[in-house]
Sequence to fold (346 residues):
Amino acid sequence: MSTVRAWGTPGFAEPLEPVTITRRDLREDDVSIRIEFVGICHSDIHTARGDWGERAYPLVPGHEIVGIVDAVGPGVTRHAPGDRVGVGCYVDSCGSCHPCSLGEISYCEEGPTLTYGGIDRRDASVTQGGYSQFIVVREDFVVRIPEVLDPAAAAPLLCAGITTWSPLRRWGAGPGRRVGIIGLGGLGHVGVRIAAAMGAEVTVLSHSDAKREDALRFGATRHVSTADGLPEDLHNHFDLLLNTVSVDLDTDALLQLLRLDGALVQLGLPPGELEVPVRSLTQRRRSVSGSLVGGIRETQEMLDFCAVHGVTAEIELIDATALNEAYDRTVNSDVRYRFVIDATTF
Fold:
């Protein structure tokens, strides 16, 4: 066991502060990673502030992790000391259910092991995340970070990138396809960049005009403020709508924007129930779906694609001492577009 410095919450809904945690000794298939950068995801905030219930404490968040391999277990073959690697939202799964056999570990029927606040499948310890100096992870849940990517700006790709990439790939975003991205925040701005790089025609739907210039700079061909309603010319327009926001919206109004065989895919987690009028589905063979994160193989494909097309997140780099302020600013939508922590400051 090794002791490392970290930042976490010592109790339910308490502010983040410096804490000390332990990391396990290397197992046969483990990779030890010296963390360089870790992104702040909104789910970190929900978890740390108790929005999703109590956890074991202290709790160290962070699942957008980029670092350098420090050491490997004797059975590791895909990573070596000195490699730059990443870790995302999950650090284990059952490996034997149907989704796992397809590489879809997000949908593991026994539940994937979360990078933080999860229960280790081998020793039942509580997992601790990336707001720390080091992390030890199974080789199968570690991805390679391409050399051409800025490691700090690549960190949010381990969550925001794969969360948008997975449905864009599954629903065939590309040339000749019209994609709408609802919301231009930490998720949405990466989704715009990826969809545009895939060759899709991208429209951003946002509640105001404040981010119009950014939307176009990220690759959107059009930005629509929904403050005064949805324009008529967008009815029966989109092949795919990705809803990245976590507020309750008029599902029927969104469905009317889809053309034949169009899909509305929910990525955000709003508090209310999703009400879907059946007629809105049947009249254009539309569908409503949801999507979580994505598998490890899929995450590597996403990173390699981003390397070829120069896609990263727009970030603000901070020291660990600014964490609580960054949480407040994220909640108040005062970040363009993702905070990333310099892990040397833990």
